Each structure stands twice: as C-alpha cells, then as structure tokens.
Amino acid sequence: MHTAISAKLINITAAALTGAALLLGAGSGAAHAANKIVARVSLSQQVMEVSVDGRPTFAWKVSTGDRAHVTPTGSFKPTRMHEMWYSKKYDNAPMPHSVFFSGGYAVHATYAIKRLGQPASHGCVRLHPDNAADFYQLVETFGATNTSIVIVK
Q1: pLDDT for position 9
Q2: Do the Cβ atoms of 61 and 116 come closer than 8 Å?
C-alpha cells in the first residue's frame, strides 16, 4: 500500500515539475533543470538523500559495503534497471528494484532491513524495499540521463 501511494505521489510530482519547467522555459535550460534527480549516498552516515530539482525530497537509511567489500565513490549515471534481478556473483541473491550504476554495483532493495544504517553489503547500496521501489520509480519517471548517483565517504 505504501509503495503504491508513494509511486502515485512521485508520478504527480514528476508531472508537476515537468509541466512547470515547460511553462517557465520550454526549449531553454529551465526545462532541463526541473527534471534532475540527485541521489547522494554518504558512506560514513549510511544515508541516501534524494533531491528532485535541487529540493531535498527523501532521506533513507542504507547499507553499503562492509569491511571486506568496497562501495565505489564518485558520481555515476544509472546504466541499467531491473524490477527484479538475481545476483550471478552471490548465489542468485535477490536484488529487487535494481538501479545499476557501475558494473555490478546497484542501488536495490534488501530484506535485511534490520541492518540498514550500517555497512553490510558486498558493495551495493541497499535500501528498504519501499524506498527502493520509490527510487526505482523516480529513475524510471525522470530517466537515467536526468539521474545522478553520487557516493561520498
């Protein structure tokens, strides 16, 4: 239920931002500015903050790479998306709502929600299933070219 309501709100927000951008400056830089998503992942804080059109919109606990597995830092664009993916490297582990950003690294849902807020993954950015579904919907709505995933220490 929460995911369906959130997805509807995201779609409404996306439509409103797109419409406002077109009214304010169709064909100019204003249209592009209103269609940007930035997901900033802090490895030290284990949080992902999502901004839409420069406005803070979500802040979610994450789990990133543990001591034995690094999460890459830098600025990335989504390279592919899968509503459901199974890891070929880690025993077909389920990776719902995967947004891949660098090789085999992705932002995706986890069922180990009690571990959110602390490093626990093999390098991916794990989210609560509801939040992963919302992020996936945002990227799908705004497009990979309008999405940045920034991972900082």
Answers
A1: 58
A2: yes
pTM of the predicted protein model: 0.81
Q: Could you give the CA distance from residue 86 to residue 91 in angstroms, rounded to a whole number?
A: 8
Residues 37-79: pLDDT tens digits?
A: 999 999 999 999 999 999 999 999 999 999 999 999 999 999 9
- Coil, strand or helix at 59: strand
Q: Strands 37-42 and 147-152: what pairing?
A: parallel
The structure tokens listed for 151 are 């991972």
Q: Quick one: which of 122, 2, 131 has its CA closest to 62?
A: 131
* Among the listed residues 74, 59, 84, 78, the one whose alpha carbon sits nearest the alpha carbon of residue 139: 78
Round to whole Å and give the CA distance between 108 and 50. Answer: 14
> What percent of the chain is predicted at pLDDT more than 70?
78
Name the residue with tokens 């420069």: 54
